[in-house]
């Protein structure tokens, strides 16, 4: 009998972390590796937010807090949802955790029973299916297509829902594709959900502020108020505020669900870092002008990468609405061979060969549930992106 839990056999390590770790190991060994795997802004946390964290330390705000967030941060979250999304919540409807990942995990652990199904559009963030499996549920993966801009259609959603469906996990703009749903596209999906009152919606709005070309972000409960009582609207400060290491995520939803999530958190991590919470108060309540500045940089980088990828034979790269990822197709490269004799028979083989032969680290599409693609994170310098894309072009041109 194995000492380890059988539950553990149902999940796998995060492929994105594995790629980043491999790139770091190669760098440490002296190789000139360009990492395009990490989903992390290369900007420093804004000075006013850093100052708020320092102030919290100097004022002795370093002790335990309420399990799921200080009152000041919950109030800031409520104000953010009202100001930016037109959603009214009370502090009793808000949960704060150690990152957006813990928010999603707590909700799934608090609600899933064996046999419960969770609809997950693919490509998906790598952790969604594994968290569902850890909770004893069954991921129901619905594959989208490049031709449809990687967006779930109402017909696909309708077909995926069964009497056992408990949640739809909805991520817009998407990691890994950057695809964002316009209001009419989202309304078509919420119309389907209104016909199935047993299905709840878990939104992952982490890239809400990183949208381009005038795209207007909206979230399900905002588009369809009838879903308010069965929606958990999740967000965090990691991406837009360049606070990945501070580890603060938050969500708002029905009081009963928030209380259940609090119970889970009380027996796992307890409260998020007190210092980070005070910094997050400043992030949400303080100046927001730097977001537009950073967004313009990301849009420029997006256009650079999309242009260079589409100029590469065998690669097709759609232009995403948001986030800081692109998700090119390598359908035109499958079946080819590298100069070193490696067969490109999958996107994983492509990513492995690209790292070993061209020293560019990307994440293969199968990790996100849709092949043959790979994900580029363009949250790095223009110079690094130009060099990386040039290496990808040279590598692809060398395939025979």
Automatic annotation (TrEMBL):
Cofactor(s) named in the record: pyridoxal 5'-phosphate
Molecular function GO terms recorded: L-aspartate:2-oxoglutarate aminotransferase activity; pyridoxal phosphate binding
Pfam families: Aminotran_1_2
SUPFAM superfamilies (alphabetical): PLP-dependent transferases
Transmembrane segments: none
Domain Aminotransferase class I/classII large: from-to ranges: 32-392
E.C. code: 2.6.1.-
One annotated GO biological process: amino acid metabolic process
Enzyme category, top tier: transferase
Reaction catalysis annotation: L-aspartate + 2-oxoglutarate = oxaloacetate + L-glutamate
Annotated keywords: Aminotransferase, Pyridoxal phosphate, Transferase
Family listed: Belongs to the class-I pyridoxal-phosphate-dependent aminotransferase family.
PANTHER family, per database record: ASPARTATE AMINOTRANSFERASE
Subunit structure: Homodimer.
Protein name, as recorded: Aminotransferase
Native species: Jhaorihella thermophila
């Amino acid at each position: 009998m194995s000492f380890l839990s059988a539950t553990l056999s149902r999940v796998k390590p995060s492929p994105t972390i594995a790629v980043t770790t491999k790139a770091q190991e190669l760098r440490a060994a002296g190789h000139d590796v360009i990492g395009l795997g990490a989903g992390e802004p290369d900007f420093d946390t804004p000075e006013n937010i850093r100052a708020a964290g320092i102030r919290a330390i100097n004022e002795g705000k370093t002790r335990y807090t309420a399990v799921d967030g200080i009152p000041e941060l919950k109030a800031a979250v409520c104000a953010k949802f009202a100001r930016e999304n037109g959603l009214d919540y009370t502090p009793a409807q808000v949960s704060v955790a150690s990152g957006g990942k813990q928010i999603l995990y707590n909700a799934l652990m608090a609600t899933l029973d064996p046999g419960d199904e969770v609809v997950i559009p693919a490509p998906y963030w790598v952790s969604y299916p594994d968290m569902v499996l850890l909770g004893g549920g069954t991921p129901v993966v619905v594959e989208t297509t490049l031709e449809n801009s990687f967006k779930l259609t109402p017909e696909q959603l309708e077909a995926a829902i069964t009497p056992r469906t408990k949640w739809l996990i909805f991520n817009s703009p998407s990691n890994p594709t950057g695809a964002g749903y316009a209001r009419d596209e989202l309304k078509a999906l919420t119309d389907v959900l209104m016909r199935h009152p047993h299905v709840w919606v878990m939104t992952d709005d982490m890239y809400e502020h990183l949208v381009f070309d005038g795209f207007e972000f909206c979230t399900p409960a905002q588009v369809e108020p009838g879903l308010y009582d069965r929606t958990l609207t999740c967000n965090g400060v990691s991406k837009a505020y360049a606070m990945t290491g501070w580890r603060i995520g938050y969500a708002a939803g029905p009081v009963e669900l928030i209380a259940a999530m609090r119970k889970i958190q009380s027996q796992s991590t307890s409260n998020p870092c007190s210092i980070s919470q005070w910094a997050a108060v400043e992030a949400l309540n303080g100046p927001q002008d730097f977001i537009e500045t950073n967004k313009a940089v990301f849009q420029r980088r997006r256009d650079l990468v999309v242009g260079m990828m589409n100029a590469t034979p065998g690669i097709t790269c759609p232009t995403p609405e948001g986030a800081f990822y692109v998700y090119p197709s390598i359908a035109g490269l499958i079946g080819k061979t590298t100069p070193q004799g490696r067969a490109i028979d999958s996107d994983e083989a492509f990513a492995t060969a690209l790292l070993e032969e061209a020293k560019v680290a990307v994440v293969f599409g199968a990790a996100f549930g849709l092949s043959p693609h790979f994900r580029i994170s363009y949250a790095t310098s223009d110079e690094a992106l130009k060099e990386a894309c040039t290496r990808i072009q040279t590598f692809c041109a060398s395939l025979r």
